[in-house]
Amino acid sequence: ISWYMQKNRLYGLLISAGLSGRMGKFKPLLEYDNKSFVQNITEKLCSICDRAIIVTGFNSEQIENDLSKNLSKANLQKVKFVLNENYKAGMFTSLKTGLLHCTDSDWVLYHFVDQPTLPLEFYNDFVNQIDQNYDWIQPAMDKRKGHPVLFGRKVIEKILEAPDNLNLREVTRNGINKKFRQCNFYEIFDDIDNIEDYKNLAKPDLE
Q1: Short-list 93, 147, 145, CA closest to 116
Q2: DSSP string covering 18-49, please?
């Protein structure tokens, strides 16, 4: 067990509440590597986090059924489903809803549902970057910032105190000490918004 596990409680927070409007299909249940997006990510979160908070909204029952059916018993015990009834008001409300269940955690790994391709190797390296001198840790590559993001208690509190009509960028613009972790995982830029993006996932890397 690495030092961060001994000293910090780490929760995974997966936002899976939206309508998938531009996709035309329900994004959390699209498949990558023979598993749904939401299963792919949840299994990796469970392997590195003390808990995995799954925020649902639209089609919440379908997500719960998928994970209840396909996760191992040990992983399922780490999972907590949280329903954001106000999910149509935007992702920031889902983030706040999830964070209400993370107040006993030291760090949160904030994850979008359309990044199922990141390998476990990324997560193992990333969570080992936890450093009490920072409030926010974000992966970067080629001078671009990616996701997911790690943030500590100070950020959790700031988000929970912020009004629902703000966004994460506005809330963390000032007074947050940020660290950018250079990495070689281009998957940190995944943003699967439409069918074309999804089709490109299935293609091998052509570099």
Answers
A1: 147
A2: S--TTTSS-GGG-EETTEEHHHHHHHHHHHH-
In 3-state terms, what secondary structure has residue 1?
coil
**Beta strand pairing status for 136-141 and 144-145?**
antiparallel
pTM of the predicted structure, to 2 decimals: 0.92
Write down the number of H helices and E strands in the chain.
9, 10
Beta-carbon neighbour count of residue 65 at 10 Å? 12
d(CA 158, CA 34): 38
> What tens-digit pLDDT sequence spans the chain (207 residues)?
444 445 689 999 999 998 877 777 899 999 999 999 999 999 999 999 999 999 999 999 999 999 999 999 999 999 999 999 999 998 999 999 999 999 999 999 999 999 999 999 999 999 999 999 999 999 999 989 999 999 999 999 999 999 998 999 999 999 999 999 999 999 999 988 888 888 887 654 433
Tokens for 98, please give them: 């999830």
Q: What tokens appear for 110 in the block?
A: 């904030």
